[in-house]
Amino acid sequence: MASEQTLCLIKPDAVKAGNIGHIITLIENNDFTIRKLKMLEMNREIAEKFYSVHKGKHFYENLVEFMTSGPIVAIVLDRDNAIAGFRELAGSTDSWKAAEGTIRHLYGTDNQENAVHGSDSPESFEYEHGVIFESCNCH
Ligand code: ATP
Ligand code: MG
After folding, report:
1. 71 lies in a domain?
2. Which residues form the domain of 87?
3. What are the average pLDDT values for consecutive 10-residue runs of the chain, which has 139 residues?
4. Closest ligand to Cα 116
5. Residue 139 annotated among the catalytic residues of the structure
6. Which one of 54, 58, 105, 117 is the catalytic residue?
């Protein structure tokens, strides 16, 4: 299978808890190559743009608040089957349901504070990469 890229965000909960290194180690141990990496703080405008697909959902307001609550780390990853592969490594959205060994099982708290984000399709990756690495000058 051809190499593919995905966007991982290490969310504010995991940054605050001191888990950047642990998460990057898991990523590297699962054969992803890091292509880009930056630490930034999302402002409301960027968080709303990034999560525009969720606008109107019951968790949207809390999600935007959470994602603007502290610094995050944005990482572009490259691997065969990177999109599905990273979502498998991340585990279920709800950290309580995430399988043993997954990032959310190890470092997530609940279904909002779940340590990482992973793109869910090539189109999402293109959009999210644009928001974080092209249109955003947050730092
Ligand atoms: P992500 O997009 O962060 O990789 P995901 O694709 O597993 O996660 P989505 O359905 O895209 O989940 O939801 C985006 C984010 O919104 C979740 O990661 C989580 O932080 C938050 N979220 C989703 N569902 C809920 C919910 N029911 N209650 C609270 N927060 C939620
Ligand atoms: Mg998602």
Report:
1. yes
2. 3-134
3. 92 98 98 98 97 97 98 98 98 98 98 98 98 84
4. 1
5. no
6. 117
69 C-beta closer than 6 A to ligand 1: no
Q: Could you give the CA distance from residue 46 to residue 138 in angstroms, rounded to a whole number?
A: 8
With respect to residue 139, please indicate whether it lies within any of the assigned structural domains.
no
* Within-domain flag for 66: yes
The answer to whether position 88 is within a domain reads yes
**How many domains in the chain?**
1
Closest ligand 1 atom to 116 CA: 3
The rounded distance, in Å, linking the Cα atoms of 77 and 5 is 5
- CATH code of 38's domain: 3.30.70.141
Tokens of 24: 């990057």
Q: Any idea what DSSP says for residue 112?
A: S
Task: Note the pTM of the prediction, 2 decimals.
Answer: 0.96
Whose CA is closest to atom 18 on ligand 1? 93
Amino acid 106 reads: L
